[in-house]
Amino acid sequence: MLQTLWAEVKQGKIELLELADLPEGTKVLVTLLPASEADRWVQKTTTVTDSIWDDIEDRIQIPTRSE
Questions:
Q1: Where in the sequence is the domain holding 43, given as residue range(s)?
Q2: What's the structural domain count of the chain?
């Protein structure tokens, strides 16, 4: 399964911006985003992710307890 994680370079090392359970030796593919495009990518991916979650929430029927 592919997983996308945000990270940034600090003192020459790539540091994740979120917690992730990555086993030692996990292979990663790093895509560099020019600073001028990074904000646009964050905005676009957030918009897409939000719309997916909104759609899922609309489809899930949470049963309510009858009183």
A1: 32-61
A2: 1
